[in-house]
Automatic annotation (TrEMBL):
ATP binds at K246. The lineage of its organism: Bacteria, Pseudomonadati, Pseudomonadota, Betaproteobacteria, Burkholderiales. The keyword Electron transport does not apply. Catalyzes the tRNA-independent activation of glutamate in presence of ATP and the subsequent transfer of glutamate onto a tRNA(Asp). Glutamate is transferred on the 2-amino-5-(4,5-dihydroxy-2-cyclopenten-1-yl) moiety of the queuosine in the wobble position of the QUC anticodon. Keywords: Aminoacyl-tRNA synthetase, ATP-binding, Ligase, Metal-binding, Nucleotide-binding, Protein biosynthesis, Zinc. This is Glutamyl-Q tRNA(Asp) synthetase. Its cofactor is Zn(2+). InterPro entries: Glu-Q_tRNA(Asp)_Synthase (IPR022380), Glu/Gln-tRNA-synth (IPR000924), Glu/Gln-tRNA-synth_Ib_cat-dom (IPR020058), GluQ/Sye (IPR049940), Rossmann-like_a/b/a_fold (IPR014729).
Length: 296
């Protein structure tokens, strides 16, 4: 029996929502409503050095202006440390984690020695330097094995938009960090622990996060968590052709014209123009449009 649909939007409070993040918010809200499900909001504030004070309230206000209201009060990852610690300890008991003493520079040098060239923006494949022990180095981060019992973690899944996906995590990523050297929880661990705890059945998010999916499925399987369905939405690109993001100076969407902002987001999602007098009317018309476009 299929589980009742539960979706979520999980912004990081590093600044206001820009047109690209509004696309992800709208898509996840529409998908939940089109399935007759619940839509939750999670503030992913574990990366505290990047968080901007008050940005969470700004985000909540932007969503409210656009009529995108969660079905429960938002949760904050900064309050979930005990759950992440429990998951880390469980993985340790399974024997699938180890301490890593490598700095970024040491990893780069190891890659050079192995003849591995790294292009800018490409994933750095961790060469497994500390897999057999620290060799005198001080422990910094905790990594999870991607080769367990001699078997490489090879993950296949079907994205609702991108189709069949496949990644050999061991060869394309390597053992990845789940507890950072600065003591903060890594995104990959926090997100799957919270998705499992909240009963998330469907993850709808930007295509830039698609490459994370195999790592997250690997962790979900190790922890015995249900694997959600995934839908990765098109990206809004800047003038330079790169993904619009806070890191490259993306401005907040125009909250003084929520109908215009919603229609622009809908256009990116492949939905037709919608004539409506206000936000609630627009959203009511957008739900069947989304259902016809994205719900099988």
């Amino acid at each position: 029996m299929a589980r009742p649909y539960v979706g979520r939007f999980a912004p990081s409070p590093t600044g206001p929502l820009h047109p690209g993040s509004l696309v992800a918010a709208l898509a996840s809200w529409l998908d939940a409503r089109a399935h007759g499900g619940r839509w939750l909001l999670r503030i992913e504030d574990v990366d505290t050095p990047r968080c901007v004070p008050g940005a969470d309230e700004v985000i909540l206000g932007q969503l409210a202006i656009c009529g995108l209201l969660p079905d429960e009060a938002p949760i904050y990852q900064s309050s979930r440390g005990a759950a992440y610690r429990e998951a880390l300890e469980h993985l340790g008991k399974l024997g699938v984690t180890y301490a890593c003493g490598c700095t970024r520079r040491a990893i780069e040098e190891a890659m050079v020695q192995l003849g591995i060239l790294h292009e800018r923006f490409e994933e750095r494949v961790y060469p497994g330097t500390c897999r057999g022990g620290l060799d005198g180095k001080q422990p910094r981060a905790t990594r999870v094995l991607t080769v367990c019992g001699g078997t490489e973690a090879v993950i296949s899944w079907t994205d609702r938009r991108l189709g069949k996906q496949h990644q050999n995590v061991a060869r394309e990523v390597g053992d990845f960090v789940i507890h950072r050297a600065d003591g903060l929880w890594a995104y990959q661990l926090a997100v799957i622990v919270d998705d499992g705890w909240q009963g998330i059945t469907d993850v709808v998010r930007g295509e830039d996060l698609a490459d994370n999916t195999a790592r997250q499925i690997h962790l979900q399987r190790l922890l015995g968590l249900d694997v959600p369905r995934y839908l990765h939405t098109p990206l809004v690109l800047g003038a330079d052709g790169r993904k619009l993001s806070k890191q490259n100076g993306a401005s907040a969407f125009d909250a003084s014209d929520p109908l215009g902002a919603l229609q622009a987001a809908a256009s990116t999602l492949g939905l037709p123009p919608i004539e409506a007098g206000d936000v609630s009317q627009w959203l009511a018309a957008a739900v069947p449009a989304w259902r016809a476009r994205w719900v099988a």
